[in-house]
User: What shape does this take?
Amino acid sequence: AVVSTQSTGGEEGLFVIDRGEKRPVWCDEDEGEREVDLGDSNITKKLKIGDESKTLTGRQLEERLRNQYTKIHATPNWATKPKQQSALLASTGSLTQNSKTLPTKKLAVSRCKNLNFRKTANCVIKSLEFHPSATVGFVAGYSKSLDLFEVDGENNRHLHRQHFPNFPIDCARFTKPGGEEVILGSKRPHFYTFDLNKCTGTKMAGVRNKPSLHYKNFSLSSQYIGFQGQDGMFALFSAIDKQIVKCVSHRTRINCSVFVDEHHFVTGGQGGFLTYWDTRTWKPISDFQDEGALHCTAVGLSDRHLAVGSDSGVVNIYNRDDLLRGCSAKPLRAVMNLTTSVGNVTFNSTGELLAVSSKELKQSLRLVNLHSLHCAPNWPTGKTPLNYVNSVNFSPNSGYIGVGSSKGQALLYRLTHYPSF
Assistant: This one.
């Protein structure tokens, strides 16, 4: 059955496929009349319970065998019934992943229709992100609206628009790990959350008496939301109830941050300093200097690498383990293809690609192949309509890359090496 649900704001109804209860495709009518003697073999003797009769019908034997199997083998995670999804997510497809190592030469890229071609924006797109488990993406920016789309590269159906009055959106991210909410930040003394299950936005209060703290930029883990303020302040909120947990401070202004795991995060800022923090003690573990950087402006992390962008346009790529152990590591590679302040450093899901960009100069986007530590030679080209790049992100299995521009376009490209979303 197909069920229609009405979204908030008078938007077009969303459609959910109700698959109902699963039934067997074929049944053997003679199976119920068949009788089996449990004493015929040593294997069936084990199925006998107490002093019951030795004879079972075919149906009884089937149920007994199923019960015996579940006692020996636990139910695998993939067979566990998932949590109820919202109408937004249940109306979209699922994900698969199966790909080989990325070639070190040319990158196979094909242009798709813009993600937001059905609901265009007439202003800068500051955030573009893909849902971690459903084929859904959002676009947000100075239009003060969050738009969600189904991602297929052709139709890109518009699912919902949520408007936030007097709140130009500087940063937005899906919560981890399930993406049930979107956190939205701006240069305001508060931030917003958007619940995908209820299709509602909620205003969340900031920290009182902290005028130097704004909510324009932040990073996420499954436990914390970390907002970067001025004067070296970093405020950590609970990702569960959105209440303040702790404010820590550094001697220099913090410009960027990334969570390593639930107990550690890295901040970068003025003076080119990177600081490795422990949330159990709320103290820095180590400080290290980004080589050649005057100011750190962006930081990204994968399973193997740490990338740091600076105001000079240089992106240094480090071995993650060496740096986090406090070693005075040298960069594996200094990417010097950008000439203005770096705004984004984003790894794909496999850690094979690194997207680096700057919003201060047109066409300032490069993709670094981490196998060769060189930029892809064939994309983007001079004819790629990037304009000023304000946001860039990969889909969960790297099948797509999305680019948000200053012209209000959410460009969508298919990375054909990766077979799935």
User: Anything to note?
Assistant: The chain has a mean pLDDT of 86.
